[in-house]
Amino acid sequence: MSLNIAVCVKRVPDTAAEKKLDPTDQTLDRESVETILNPVDEMAVEEALKLKEAHSGEVTIISMGPEGAQPQAIRKALSMGADKGVHLNDPALHGSDAQAVAYALAQVVAKGSYDIILCGAESTDARTSLVPPALAENLKLPNLNFVKNVEVADGRVSAHRETDRGYDVIEGPLPAVVGIVWGANEPRYPSFKGIMASKNKPVETLSAADVGLDLAKVGLAGSQTQVVASGARSSERARNIVDNKDGDAHVKLADFLQQQKFI
Amino acid sequence: MPDVWVLIDHEQGVTSKVSHQLLTAARGLAAKAGGEAVAIFLGSGWATAKDRIAKYGATKALVSESTDYEDFLSSPSVETVSALIAERSPWGVLFPSSPSGKEIATRVAVRSGLGVLADSTNVDIAEGKLSCEYSAFGGSTLVTKTLKSGPFLICVKPNAFVAEESAADVSEEKIEASISDDAKRVVIKERVQKEAGGRPAVDSAAIIVSGGRGLAEPANFSLVEGLADEIGAAVGASRAAVDAGWYPHAHQVGQTGKTVSPQLYIAVGISGAIQHRAGMQTSKTIVAINKDAEAPIFSMVDFGVVGDLFDIVPKLTEEIKRRKGGG
Ligand SMILES: Cc1cc2nc3c(=O)[nH]c(=O)nc-3n(C[C@H](O)[C@H](O)[C@H](O)COP(=O)(O)OP(=O)(O)OC[C@H]3O[C@@H](n4cnc5c(N)ncnc54)[C@H](O)[C@@H]3O)c2cc1C
Ligand SMILES: Nc1ncnc2c1ncn2[C@@H]1O[C@H](COP(=O)(O)O)[C@@H](O)[C@H]1O
Q: B14 forms bridges with which residues in the sheet?
């Protein structure tokens, strides 16, 4: 069975960069920082490419977000080997919370007839990991989240879901929404040929109206969560630092731990 | 009813520490909202769970005993919790902010047309309004959020609240939940335990001892484990240690691992890269052992030791053992 695969990817601020909230509306000031493809999403793309290699089929990259950043994320995935992209971009989407994002993505996904929809299990910026289960629920599809070792056979998908002491083997019917956990695989680097080829791959840009979004459900106004305030957390620490030159640092540390009642 | 519910996290009725923390939080919130703290218990083992739940002050429990909650992934819980909310409209529900807790909360939210907050580090009612704190950007920013309308669905981070006992009489109500076929689509076929139990899990531990590349080779993780066992800690690891295959990913702390806030975090042979700090800098007390006085980790410690971990860690473990023995 050839597989029609979708991968939802997100552009996130570079991990090492300073991040700040836009003081006017408390959304992430995305202009102020370098952005990269969410690292876990690269693993979701890699997983998709492996499924395509094993079963044949097509890989569509779906991303929602503003101009500039999102198309770059799609290009990166296309240069790794995905076939085409869909970019949902509309000013009405600005300020959407995770649930609103999932609702919007669901309308895009619903326009295709995908056998499997892959996501990263969590983004490095929001880290809510709410989008994949919310996407599944919007689509009324089964959800396998925080997984690796994804395998498809006979219209079913199985995977390993990380637990505290090992993993659970889980399995469900396709179509399904699958959230890939960090470390699931080593994402391939785009080859020079891949980068050149990606330039000719189609990327369709859709507006809210194109996918029939209910505007009451997206954007700042359509989001249930509201930011009331934000500020720098004070991170003052005692910074009591001792050198072990006399060989008794372990005693001083034990004293400290005892004072703090950890011993 | 302005009751505050807690979705109890448990294994065969053995309730987790996070459940006790959430019950403590629910008591405080219920007092302000003018309702009761209610435990939602799904699965098997209610007989075991009942006393534990009573100890942390739930006055009521809604109990649905079925193995469906263990045999199938998340969906049976989503179905029952959604149905209960529709029927009784509580003030809100607290979920553990764990992968499965968040997954259940989110899907309940979508199904019930409600909002959900993930990763809350504090939950309060201020001037009649829900107010949840959460740390953004690796703990450098504190954000206060609210939801437009209730019932409120809130995922609370482990260790956000300190569990306090307050014995109560629990009145229990058995719920007849018939789980639909739709909720039985994702099957848990096998539970593979690669590690023996005994040590606490990184996510919710009160103390974590983490090892990094400074340990030089995998076998040396035994030093970290020895110290951890002596003070009842979980074992964490930096990404460098995990990528090298020295320790499983479930133990990784940082931006692409767990975000933890234990009472005490001890970093051993970890430099303190920004992506590591993102996972641990909201820890209450931070201690580091590193031979490089310039290591960035020292900029954020309460107590730091500059020196060779191979010398210090075994001696520290012995010293702690001696003091514990000596009372
Ligand atoms: C997208 C992205 C995500 C990432 N996510 C994470 C994450 O989730 N978690 C994470 O930890 N990292 C993460 N990293 C990696 C991070 O940048 C660092 O590379 C990593 O944390 C370094 O691990 P380390 O401190 O163990 O190793 P090193 O930086 O090599 O530090 C080892 C330390 O050990 C000390 N040392 C050596 N020998 C001794 C001795 N005998 N006694 C005492 N001290 C000694 C050294 O002085 C040094 O400070 C991420 C990076 C990227 C790009
Ligand atoms: N704007 C977006 N466009 C496409 N996919 C997204 C978007 N936001 C989140 N996702 C997907 O949802 C995953 C989890 O993100 P989050 O819920 O933000 O932690 C990501 O790894 C992506 O796969």
A: B11
The answer to whether the CB of B53 falls within 8 A of the CB of B13 is no
Q: How far apart are CA B148 and CA B150, in angstroms?
A: 7
For residue A182, the chain B residues in CB contact (below 8 A) are 249, 252, 256-257
For residue A177, which ligand has an atom nearest its CA? 2
**Surface-to-core class of residue B3, CB atoms within 10 Å of its CB (0-12 exposed, 13-18 middle, 19+ buried):** buried
Of B103, B110, B263, the CB nearest to A145: B103
Look-up: residue for tokens 């023995």? Answer: B325
Pocket of ligand 2 contains residue A211 by CB under 6 Å: no
Q: How many angstroms from the chain centroid is the CA of residue B259?
A: 10
pLDDT tens-digit series, residues B184-237: 999 999 999 877 767 899 988 999 999 999 999 999 999 999 999 999 999 999
Report whether the peptide linkage leading into residue A190 is cis, meaning its omega lies within 30 degrees of zero: no
- Suggest the residue from B106, B282, B301, B324 to mutate for an interface test with chain A (most A CBs closer than 10 A): B106
Average pLDDT over residues A95-107: 95
| Chain B, nearest residue to A250 by Cα | B316
The closest of B306, B260, B268 to B284, measured between CA atoms, is B260
Q: Is the CB of A71 under 6 A from ligand 2?
A: no
Sole residue written with tokens 């997206």: A218
The whole-angstrom separation of Cα A129 and Cα A207 is 25
Are B144 and A229 an interchain contact pair (Cβ–Cβ within 8 Å)? yes
Out of B139, B250, B252, name the one closest to residue A164 (CB): B250
ipTM value: 0.88
What is the CA(B138)–ligand 2 centre distance, in A? 18
pLDDT, chain B, mean = 94
- Prediction pTM value: 0.89
Tell me how far apart the alpha carbons of residues B231 and B234 are, in angstroms, rounded to a whole number: 9
Amino acid at B201: A
CA angle B46–B51–B52, rounded 5-degree value: 90
